[in-house]
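Q: Joint fold for the lines below.
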Amino acid sequence: MPLLLPDHFKRVNDTWGHLKGDQVLREIATLCRETLRHEDVVARFGGEEMAILLPLTPLEDGLRLAERLRQIIAEHDYGIQRGSVTASLGVAGYIDGDTSDTLIERADRGLYAAKHDGRNRVFSIQ
Ligand SMILES: Nc1nc2c(ncn2[C@@H]2O[C@H](COP(=O)(O)OP(=O)(O)OP(=O)(O)O)[C@@H](O)[C@H]2O)c(=O)[nH]1
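A: Joint structure:
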């Protein structure tokens, strides 16, 4: 399960306006959906955060997919200055006994590590 958070999104809103920010978020969600399988789920997870559910996907594959998404998001043309939209992703793989809370908590720690390491990165904490 990857958690995705755009980088420096306040700056996107402040520079190009909230409506453009909304459009960027919608485009990121569309890019995710286009990249994922039919059974995968992209969900808004409060604010500008998105949760991605990849059923029956080993962590290694989830990490590969998250890395692909990171690249696609960074390379897409949003109609604003190139390079101004990137995202950080934290990925957690299901472990026996996990609840949704413990899974999200690990993905969130990965996300925090990705932000802390400089953003536009994929991190996983097991
Ligand atoms: N346009 C738009 N902005 C949103 C939405 N939800 C949250 N935001 C904005 O997203 C911004 C998030 O800012 P911060 O939490 O400071 O994080 P950030 O600027 O992305 O910085 P880092 O996460 O540290 O890279 C805030 O300005 C929120 O108002 C939304 O639905 N639409």
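Q: Anything notable?
A: The mean pLDDT is 96. The chain has four helices and five strands.
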